[in-house]
Structure formats: structure tokens, C-alpha cells
Amino acid sequence: MKELRIGDKVAKVPVIQGGMGVGVSRSSLAGSVAKAGGVGIISTAQIGYDEPDFVNNHREANNRAIEKHIKLAKAQADGGLVGVNVMVALKDYEEHVRVAAAAGADVVICGAGLPVTLPGLLEGTDTKFAPIVSTEKALMVLFKMWDKKYNKTADFVVIEGPKAGGHLGFSADQLKEDAEGNLDYDTEIKKIIERVHQQEEKYNKKIPVIVAGGIFDAEDVAHVLRLGADGVQVASRFVATAECDADMRFKQAYVDAKEEDVRIIKSPVGMPGRAVQNVFLEETESGKCKVERCLGCLAKCNPAEIPYCITDALIRAVQGDVEHGLVFCGANVGRITEITTVPEIMEDLKCGFTEYENGNK
């Protein structure tokens, strides 16, 4: 099995664990994935939610927690790679990137918006960076902006498809089309990969392409490798593990969820999202949710206009109130049937790389 090489950083297994906030992927999960040979990713979104001063000092609490969890994960990782996922939509997005790099993050992955300033934020550091994109058009825009302003390009690229969990870079119509089996996303993946190859030639460097969204088992891994991907990003499946940082009731909600329980929702971030149906979603649809405080998470958020506070909803969920919180998930959550472990999932995913390599010999 080929290693995943991101510049001078090497992961033995080309599997990146997707970042999941609030608090779902912190040091325990990320450190375990890194130790198993993959790239463990900590979500910085309101990561300090359980710090004692979070409500009154959320900015400092988050910065402190970013540093703490990176160091804890790296101590556990046994030399493996640990990084962060930072949403561009966050109010403190740029600060989170800088704090993570200073704390020793190996990689920074940014989505939920275009990270146009990302190369400049990491200038002078050894931290590698990647955008999360869903279309060739978005990647072209980023590449052109980075070319012009920084004369730099991505160290790797994450392509996130329509079956991903959490916030999605697709319209409601596109998501409906995909659910009906009428969206040819494989073609878009190939277009993005071709665009990356052109950038590789321009900068004379290898830019690994990682495919995310709906990657569940070895068959899914082999499929995207055949499309030209260098590795995969997996998120939802890692929730139902002993090592995941979320409350056991959150993990059990994944085990109990059926395919028909998954809903596409409207998030205060301004993007569609995929989540498990529960009492909370019913209340948001009827307008019963009240925003009582602002915890400064989103750059573009007016508490008087949003349907609910996404921070409060995600905190309730990760702490175990899965009926009155927001439980983000991927489209394949219905395939999760038990609580397992990170090493077991990694072994299963590795079979996909073996299957691909054996088929191409």
C-alpha cells in the first residue's frame, strides 16, 4: 500500500479522518487515527465548549483548547500525523489557523467557504494546507487567487461529495438529484483531479487528492482510487468508535439511525446540512427554537435572524442530549450497526487499497 505523502510529511495509510465539530473529533479520536497510520483531524469549531470559561470567554477558551488537544493527540499519535479542520465560516477562522500551526498541527484543512487567505496565514510554518472543494469551479477560483496573491498552491486537496455529513457545498436541488441517483459526481471528481494535475505541473510538486463524502468501506475506497484519488477522508464511521470524543449516547444515535432518519436541513452557516431527524429538527421546522445568547462562532450571524443557535444545538448533542441537539451525519449513517474501534475501521479501509492495487497489477 502506498503511503500518503504531503510534502515531507508521511502517513502510512492514505486515510484522513474527517473533522467533526462541536467536540466530536478532538484529541482522543484524532490521536487514535494518527497512531493507526492515518491522519487524525481535530475540529476547531467551538472546541473549547467544555472549558470552564467558555461562555464568557469563548475566544480564549477555544484557542486554549486547540493547543491542548493538538498536543494531547500528538502525544498519543506515536509519530503519526495530526491536523485540524477549520471552517472558513468561523468568526475566528484566521486565528484558529495560526494557533493550530503554532501548536504543531501537521496539516490544516479548511471548508465551509473558500480559504482565500490560507497560504498567507501559514507563511513561515511547516504546516501543510488543503481546501475542501465540491466543484472544479471552486478549486479554479482558489488556485487563481493563490497564484496571483501568494505564488503558492495547495499541499493537498480534499474533494467532498454530496453524501458527506455536516455542511454541504451543494444546492438542495443537487442533493435531491443525488438522492435519486441522478447526479454524476464521479465526472466532477475526475475534472477536479485533472485540474490538480495541471497545478502539479505548474508548481513541480505532487498534490495528493483526497476524496470524501460517502466513503464507508473498502469497496468505496477502491472506487475512488480508480477515479484517480490518492486517498480518502472518512468521518461518520469513526463516530461509532470507542475512541470518539463524543458522549456514548451520541455514538448510539448513529448506531440506531436508519437511512430514512437522515434529513437535509438549513443551517445558520448558510449552507445545507445533513443530520439525523429528532425532536430538535421538528422544533426548528415549527419555529419553536429561541436564540438566548451569542457565543461568537460564525462570522456572518445575526442572532435576531437565525432559526437557532448552532453552537448550543451541537453542544447539547455531543454531550448526549441527542433528541434536543443537532446530530450531523453522513448519508451512510444507516449502515453503522455497532460501536467498534479505530484500528478495526482502519483495517477494513486498508483492504480497499489492497483491492485496488491487486486489480491494477
Give a quick summary of the entry:
The chain is 39% helix and 16% strand. By secondary structure, it is an alpha/beta fold. The longest helix has 19 residues.
Q: Can you tell me about this structure?
A:
The chain has 361 residues and is an alpha/beta fold. The chain has helices at residues 27-35, 58-76, 93-102, 118-121, 136-150, 172-179, 185-203, 218-226, 236-239, 248-256, 279-285, 310-318, 342-359, and strands spanning 4-6, 9-11, 15-17, 39-43, 81-87, 107-111, 128-133, 157-160, 166-167, 209-212, 231-234, 262-266, 272-276. The strands form three sheets. The protein has an eight-stranded parallel sheet with strand order 3-11-10-8-7-6-5-4. Helix 1 (27-35) runs parallel beside helix 2 and helix 8 crosses helix 13. The longest helix is centred in the first third of the chain and has 19 residues, at 58-76. The two termini are 12 Å apart. The relative contact order is 0.15.
